[in-house]
Amino acid sequence: MVSALSEEIASSDHKVVVVHGGGSFGHVVAKQHGISSEVSEAPAVGVAQTRGAMYELDRMVCKTMMEYKLSPYPFSPFDAVSRAGRLQVASWLKGLLKEGLTPVTFGDVTLTQSGFKVMSGDVIVQELSKTLAPDRAVFALDVDGVYEQNTRVIIPELSPSKIRRMGVPDGDDATGGMKLKLDVAAKIAAAGTKVCFVSGYRRNEFSKAVRGLDFYGTVVRS
Ligand SMILES: Nc1ncnc2c1ncn2[C@@H]1O[C@H](COP(=O)(O)OP(=O)(O)OP(=O)(O)O)[C@@H](O)[C@H]1O
Ligand SMILES: [Mg+2]
Questions:
Q1: pLDDT confidence of residue 175
Q2: Beta carbon of 26 within 6 Å of any ligand 1 atom
Q3: pTM of the prediction?
Q4: Can you give the pLDDT at residue 108?
Q5: Would the CB of 23 count as within 6 Å of ligand 1?
Q6: Is 209 helix (H, G, I), strand (E, B) or coil?
Q7: Inter-residue contact 100 to 129 (CB < 8 Å)
Q8: What's the rounded mean pLDDT across residues 89-114?
Q9: What is the pLDDT of residue 39?
Q10: Is 122 left (phi over 0), alpha (psi -120 to 50) or beta?
């Protein structure tokens, strides 16, 4: 999936910031140590192993991106989002994009005042959208879009208010599954960025979503 999507991003000639999730790398290790999006008293070894897995995955993602003609610039979301001011981060990212780099970041484990928690890729997309106010935020999924409740029927278009009325059960990953993704999408769309949910296995649909064209999947806009 990473190779096909990298190729589509490269050939689109659009300026893109990439955020990847944890998948089988981050979530599994996090769960073993009781680390989730809720603050917990995680053991140091669990924090180290979870972050280690994420950095390992990030290394693989960036290597593949380079094979497919992108120039990734990996950064820790914690450093960028939590520590520096929003305007500073925005101009830094825009500077990287202007130089032809593709900033890449990922879900991470962060220390809060009361313990460790996972900052999921979805929340990072929300933060970055607030920071950069992009035209679009594209979520590449392992499903074709957002399903109507208890069916496999794709909902072509959603609004923030419609999302708030939907009942979506919590996922079983470390960070909230589709429910969190929809909550995040509602906030991003309410701020004026179009949100696209598209299958990461359908490179042509993904490519259309990245380019701002109609695609098979779900669009969220206010
Ligand atoms: N209404 C729904 N429409 C579509 N998918 C749904 C819905 N409800 C639950 N899901 C599940 O949510 C999953 C996507 O969320 P999930 O958090 O698992 O993926 P991810 O965030 O892309 O990956 P990861 O969290 O592993 O990095 C889909 O694979 C699907 O099984
Ligand atoms: Mg998830």
A1: 61
A2: no
A3: 0.94
A4: 87
A5: yes
A6: helix
A7: no
A8: 93
A9: 84
A10: alpha
Looking from the CA of residue 176, the nearest atom of ligand 1 is: 17
Are the beta carbons of 120 and 35 closer than 8 angstroms?
no
On whether the CB atoms of residues 106 and 121 are closer than 8 A, the answer is: yes
Element (H, E) at 104: strand 102-106
Residue 145's alpha-carbon distances to 139, 152, 168, in angstroms, are: 9, 9, 14
Query: How does residue 169 score in pLDDT terms, banded at 50, 70 and 90?
Result: low
Domains in the chain, CATH or no CATH each? 2-220 (3.40.1160.10)
Q: At 116, phi and psi to the nearest 5?
A: -90, 150
pLDDT digits (tens, 9 = 90+) for 41-68: 888 999 999 999 999 999 999 999 999 9
pLDDT digits (tens, 9 = 90+) for 10-25: 999 999 999 998 878 8
- CB-facing half-sphere around the CA of 25: CA atoms within 13 A: 17
pLDDT at 135 > cutoff 70 = yes
Residue 114: DSSP 8-state = T
Atom of ligand 1 nearest to the CA of 24: 26
- In this prediction, residue 81 carries a pLDDT of 57
Distance from the alpha carbon of residue 173 to the mean position of ligand 2, in angstroms? 6
Q: CA-CA distances (angstroms) from residue 115 to 29, 44, 47, 111?
A: 17, 11, 11, 6
DSSP line for 50-94: HHHHHHHHHHHHHHHHHHTT--EEE--HIIIIIIS-HHHHHHHHH
Task: Tell me the two tokens of residue 161.
Answer: 């208010």
Who wins on pLDDT, 18 or 29?
18
